[in-house]
Design goal:
This protein is α/β, with parallel strands linked by helices and 329 residues long. The protein is built from 12 helices and 13 strands. The strands form 3 sheets. Strands 2-1-3-10-4 form a 5-stranded mixed β-sheet, sandwiched between helices.
Length: 329
Amino acid sequence: MAEEEATPLRIGTRGSPLAMAQAFETRKRLQEAFPELNEDDAIQICVMKTQGDMILDKSLMELGGKGLFTKELDTALLGNEVDICVHSMKDVPTWLPEGTVLPCTLPREDTNDAFIHKDGSVKTIAELPDNSVIGTASLRRQAQLMAKNPTFKCVNFRGNVQTRLRKLNDGVVDATLLAIAGLKRMDMDGCATAVLDWEEMLPAVAQGAIGIQCRSDDEKSLKYIGALNHAPTKACVDCERAFLEALDGNCKTPIAGQARIIDDKIVFRGLIAMPDGSQKFEITKEGAIEDAKVIGRTAGEEIKAEAGEKFFEMMVEMSPQQVLGQITK
């Protein structure tokens, strides 16, 4: 009997330059770990468009928030069209579709935000003149920016990194903020005017992290991606996502959260704010690495109690147009 032809490992990914760079990095790591995956056609990259990629003239909040960049990939995974999916972890909802798991997080890139000025003459957010126009689709960034200077005007700024930088160069806005991780993965970090520390701009939950998802009963894929998991990164991301889950976070609520491992402990810092930056609540927690999820969840519960029910009721009641009205007034 002829030997059965080996089936390729199919990687599902979005088609943006950043998503493709992340898929290529995953392929490279798989090939380094498993020699058999260096054979011709042993790995197949399957590109697909998500709703978030196709509708660029609306904010993520108006489109419905989380899951906009993952639903189509989830469907392909559950339909056995792909074997694994590569995600920017900040795009992944805190819940996963039944029958799927996300057991692998690759070593994390720098998590900070990059500040990019149109001509580089302004080096920090604090130096921006009053009434500066800043392009960003992130309520997290908008809230922190406006907490620093309420005269700033933040405008919806979507599209891939190249599109946003082109708009900046065309003078559509005075400045923008992007994750330095994405710029580094595309060898574009030279365009950053400055990299902001956590005091200036606390990053998004799971920013800078790549996660790999597969079907829960797919032993072959579990073996492959399990070998790539970076335990320190996964602990930090699990902590941050537990914080987000405790807050029932969505794209109408500006939420930031970051964890680091320092002296064999996990140190977490979280933030929630009103979209216009008029109210802001912050929290810091630390503890044993094995308690990462508990630390994140506890931080979420405590900051939720501090902000009070009225804060979250206002968020739920506000329409996307009302939230955006606070930003662009």
